[in-house]
Write a structure and sequence with these properties.
Length: 456
């Protein structure tokens, strides 16, 4: 079955890229590990088997907001991180050795390592896994080859609104790896549990759902990412990396260890890079080994640089650029809707979404569309109104910042349909003043993904 699949998988747009598991009877089965890892930069050692009681933390004091910590919290602390609450976690926003703009530029020129362990990692398996995921997303997963990924969205049944954005990777015929947003954790877990309950109630084929609790996830991003990763992989894994293209994944092994990691080529910055899913016991040691193996090329980066990088790349952040009221068509994500799905439907909100895809003459279309803006003067932030020459509101800004690469103020937001074409001149209210703005195509800067050669 897999041999018959042929489809381009992951395309850039979002993912931003995702506190505790459900505690009811419908709670997913979580996987935990009681192992620990020790690696030396010069000579990595085999994994050491230690109990959780052997693991030391920088501080056992409770956070004021009872924030969760990723497996790299101690490492961030030791390297001078400044923390902020994000998605229920205490996350580094930047580090003492480098400002946000400097970190942004370092990523574009060399490589940075981001802790994205706050994201929620899932596995869906069983004979009904593919059909179940197709029922709650608009993607055509039947065409997705093994170890290929696609951007998708969970959808509300009646409205077609986006519950969350997600990346789905097929690991085998009946197994999928899915990553969702930390800020949507409780909502997503409740949504999936409810949908699975309904699925099982209809006597569909069985689906097993696991939340990979405490699983590490780091994003290695930048033009030197591949060079750095090759230095720490064993020989067999290094060879496979040469033919690992954007949107593809492979299991790999770190030199001198038996730690099996899932390496996915892609990311949230517009640069070439990888997201690496690591067993809980190995996360800290492997991350430190990566950093120590390329001290002149690789730096830790926080949420501050991650946000400016993703905005330059035209990628959405859920809760800002996407929410429950917005459909994929309004969000300029129509491309995630498979050709067969457009013809046959069969997914949540299909009656709404398929109607939106039709021409206006056929009663279709939407009232608003997601676009990019270049803004003169002061930068526009989330919530700023977009107005026409008469001062009438025609849209709103959902994300905005000065672009370190362009030296201009960029923003993302929604505008009235018909005014969404590139080059349309509008105005944005910034602190009570009207600023000139121009609707602009995204990404704001060219993407540098390592893509497969075009077939002749």
């Amino acid at each position: 079955m897999a041999a018959k699949r042929s489809v381009a998988a992951l395309r850039p747009a979002l993912n931003g890229s995702v506190t505790s598991c459900l505690r009811a009877n419908c709670a997913p089965r979580a996987r935990y590990s009681s192992q620990s890892l020790s690696i030396r930069t010069s000579r990595p050692r085999k994994l050491l088997r230690l109990s959780p009681s052997c693991v030391r933390y920088a501080s056992d004091k409770a956070e004021p907001e009872k924030l969760e910590k990723t497996g790299l919290y101690d490492l961030h602390t030791s390297r001078g991180a400044k923390f902020v609450p994000f998605g229920g976690y205490s996350m580094p926003v930047q580090y003492n050795d480098m400002g946000i703009t400097e970190s942004h530029n370092w990523t574009r020129e060399k490589a940075s390592l981001f802790d994205v362990g706050h994201m929620v990692q899932h596995e869906f398996s069983g004979p009904g896994a593919e059909a179940f995921l197709q029922s709650i997303t608009p993607s055509d997963l039947t065409l997705l080859p093994d170890f290929n990924s696609t951007l998708s969205t969970f959808l509300h049944r009646e409205t077609g609104g986006i519950v969350d954005d997600t990346v789905i990777t097929r690991l085998s015929d009946d197994k999928f790896y899915v990553v969702t947003n930390a800020g949507c954790r409780e909502k997503d877990l409740a949504y999936i549990a409810s949908e699975l309950e309904a699925w099982n109630g209809d006597s569909n084929e069985a689906v097993e759902w696991q939340v990979l609790e405490k699983q590490g996830l780091v994003a290695l991003q930048g033009p030197l990412a591949a060079v750095i990763l090759k230095e720490v992989l064993d020989n067999e894994s290094t060879k496979a990396l040469d033919t690992l293209y954007f949107g593809q994944s492979r299991y790999a092994t770190i030199k001198g260890t038996d730690a099996k990691v899932l390496v996915s080529r892609g990311g949230y910055t517009g640069e070439d890079g990888f997201e690496i899913s690591i067993p809980p016991y190995a996360t800290a040691a492997i991350t430190e080994y990566l950093l120590d193996s390329a001290k002149d090329k690789l730096r830790l980066a926080g949420l501050g640089a991650r946000d400016t990088l993703r905005l330059e790349a035209g990628m959405c952040l859920y809760g800002h650029d996407l929410d429950d009221s917005i459909t994929p068509v309004e969000a300029a994500l129509s491309w995630i809707i498979g050709k067969d799905r457009r013809a046959k439907g069969g997914f949540h909100g299909d009656s709404v979404i398929l109607q939106q895809l039709k021409k206006k003459s056929e009663g279709g279309g939407v009232s608003r569309r997601r676009v990019g803006f270049i803004i003169e003067g002061a930068p526009a932030r989330e919530g700023a109104e977009v107005v026409n020459a008469e001062g009438e509101k025609i849209g709103n800004i959902t994300s905005g910042c000065p672009s370190p690469a362009l030296k201009k103020n960029i923003a993302m937001g929604y505008i009235k349909d018909g005014l969404h074409k590139s080059g349309t001149e509008v105005e944005v209210l910034v602190r009570g003043k009207r600023r000139k703005a121009t609707v602009t195509k995204m990404p704001f800067i060219p993407s540098k993904y390592f893509k497969a050669p075009a077939s002749k």
